[in-house]
Amino acid sequence: MLREKLGEGAFGEVFKAVLTRPTGGQENVCARKVTTRNEKYSDEDFLREVEVMEKLTCPYLVRLIGVCYSANAMLMVTEMVLLGPLNMYLQKFKGKLPLPKAIRFLTQIAAGMKFMAAKHYVHRDLATRNVLVARFVLVCARCVFCSWLAP
């Protein structure tokens, strides 16, 4: 169930949502609803992004939970990353992020990119707006900007 709109981008909207499991348990999740289907982002692009996210499971990459796909809507459900994008998080520190935290962030981003490289993928838009901050770790998002490289 979609709850609260968190933002929007070129291809759609992002919502805070609640996933109800068949067992009755509930989990807060993030749902990205594709609202724009055109030559820049097609159904095939969406399905390719899902396929990439299924292959790339790492603590430093956003975890794909599931997909809802129909003629009317394309919805990607991922883990909820509570503290939001890194660029917004850094604004709170006004340029004075403690050095140990900055080193931890850089190390985690590098670990995520190293994992992707080992699988022959490269993130083509690694930017603070595409890095999400969880309580103790950073995760990179938006695999639509990933490309597979031949070994």
The helix count comes to 3
Using only C-alpha atoms, the radius of gyration works out to: 16 Å
What does the main sheet amount to?
5 strands, antiparallel
Percent strand = 25-35%
CATH class: Mainly Alpha
Tell me what the structure shows.
β4 (64-69) and β5 form a beta hairpin. The protein is 26% helix and 32% strand. 23% of the residues are buried. The chain is built from 3 helices and 9 strands; from the N terminus they run βββαββααββββ. The chain is globular, with a radius of gyration of 16 Å. It has 151 residues and is of the alpha+beta class. The model has no long low-confidence stretch (mean pLDDT 84). It has a single domain, classed as Orthogonal Bundle (Transferase(Phosphotransferase), domain 1). A 5-stranded antiparallel β-sheet has the order 1-2-3-5-4.
What's this, in brief?
By secondary structure, this protein is of the alpha+beta class. It has helices spanning 43-55, 86-91, 99-118; strands spanning 2-8, 12-20, 26-34, 64-69, 74-79, 121-123, 131-133, 138-140, 146-148. Helices cover 26% and strands 32% of the residues.
